[in-house]
């Protein structure tokens, strides 16, 4: 499973060159970086990757709908998609 996710991350990163940024990520970056927009490019990049990885995790080929419960729990404790993804990934590692 780790190999599949790692491969998925590389494929996702390669495809990001022409990817659109989801409105949720834009809104999040605007909120988090409201006082300084210097970090906006990095926030958008990391947010898009995390958003796409979370969307991939809930697909049937990976964790399926059961991932929603873990993602929701991570969302309650974290404010950005990047931190939610890190939380989800750590939960998945420790549950093996």
Summarize this structure as a short list of keywords or feature phrases:
single chain; 96 residues; mainly alpha; 0% strand
Task: Characterize the structure shown.
With 96 residues, the chain is mainly α. It is built from 5 helices and no strands. It has helices spanning 2-15, 23-32, 40-57, 67-77, 81-94. It is globular.
Largest sheet: none
Proportion of residues in extended strands: under 5%
* Mean pLDDT across all amino acids: 83
How would the global form be characterised?
Answer: globular
State the order of secondary-structure elements, H for helix, E for strand: HHHHH
Task: Say how many strands there are.
Answer: 0
Give me the Rg, rounded: 14 Å
Judged by helices, strands and strand pairing, the structural class is mainly alpha
Give the low-confidence spans: none
Q: What's the assembly state of these chains? A: single chain
Task: Give the proportion of residues in helices.
Answer: 55-70%
Distance between the termini: 11 Å
Number of helices: 5
């Amino acid at each position: 499973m780790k190999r599949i996710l790692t491969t998925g991350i590389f494929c996702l990163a390669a495809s990001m060159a022409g990817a659109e940024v989801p409105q949720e990520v834009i809104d999040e970056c605007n909120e988090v970086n409201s006082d300084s927009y210097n970090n906006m490019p990095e926030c958008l990049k990391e947010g898009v990757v995390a958003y796409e990885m979370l969307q991939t995790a809930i697909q049937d080929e990976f964790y399926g709908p059961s991932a929603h419960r873990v993602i929701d729990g991570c969302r309650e404790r974290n404010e950005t998609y990047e931190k939610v993804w890190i939380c989800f990934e750590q939960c998945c590692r420790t549950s093996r």
